[in-house]
Hints:
There is one protein chain. By secondary structure, the chain is mostly beta strands. The protein is built from 2 helices and 27 strands. The protein has helices at about 1-20, 260-270; strands spanning about 25-30, 40, 45-50, 60-65, 70-75, 80-85, 90, 105-110, 115-120, 125-130, 135-140, 150-155, 155-165, 175-185, 190-205, 205-210, 215-220, 225-230, 235-240, 245-250, 280-285, 290-300, 305-310, 315-320, 325-330, 335-340, 345-355. It has a 5-stranded mixed sheet with strand order 1-20-19-18-17. The N and C termini lie far apart (about 60 Å). About 25% of the residues are buried. The model is unreliable at about 1-20 (pLDDT under 50).
Amino acid sequence: MRKGLALLSLFIFLLSILTASVGQIIENPSTPLAKDAGRVLKLLEVWRITDEAGDFYLQAPRNLQTATDGSIFIADNDEFLRFSAEGKFIKNIFKKGQGPGEIGGSFVYFVQGRDVFIQDLNSWRLWRADFAGVFQEHIILKNKDISVLIGVVPNGYLFLRMVWPPRSEWTGRMMEVLHIVEFFTKDGSDKRDIATFKTNAFLSPRSATNWDSTITILSPDDKSLFAFFGREYRIEIVNLDGSPAAKEFRRTYPRVPHVEKSWESASRKKYGFPKIEYETDVKGLYPGEGRVWVETSTEDKNKGRLIDVFDAGGRYIDSFYLGPGRSLMAVGEGYVFCQEKNEDETITIVKYRIMN
């Protein structure tokens, strides 16, 4: 009897170690805890940004971020726009070129403290600017492979590096691609790997087609990273202090069939990659204070896009529709920023206060 209890205790101990090493997995049902889940979110307009004045043009606005002084930054095609907290246009920071403070084309940026960190994806240069877009310093990271900036924290930078299979193995099949989250100290003298993810890509001698989605976003307290890699509903939380993954959470989700476009069919037949059966379950991640909003692939013609809400423990607590014609750009405490496309294809950005 004692021997059996000892073996049982040993098994429980080993199981606890294994669980701690791989992190906690939270499985959620298809319905959230909120009794009024599935409603259309009631929103009250605070202000609206349009390009009617001609100072800038909204073509493909993305990556809306707010600064400590309330300033709002938005990236667009050959534009890097700054607005006041009231939505008034201040300046287009984008300067075309290859010199200090200039951008060659595509770029990523992150606001941290009183600074804006910008990476030019054409030349892979990284630099720091102030809120007015004035160049402050060029940032050189020692022993850094080419990788994309995915976040800035008070003591360093987060990059995502992709490791592809050797080109000689690209024979027209689905293959795994590694995505390594790397942390660099601010002075660039030290780095460490935080996490590694895997996605699928169709690799042939003539083309490389990413099959899976990749979404990463920092938590508001800069202590963890929310990550979605793949196509099916699964969100992982990575602790930035290097400890094992805090948790990953999922929910039972009815997948949305993919409607193939004509250009997709032509490209598929030309290069031979498989037909897409379902949409990617997760379209965006938007952490707030103690919660994370998940933009799903479910869309209703009359109610708009379905948004799921999880608490800090990974529990599925609420869901609602955003309203027709709206797509989510950012979430704040009691408000949301949405992008809306009008019938004439013009785009507006609206700040709404959440009423229910």
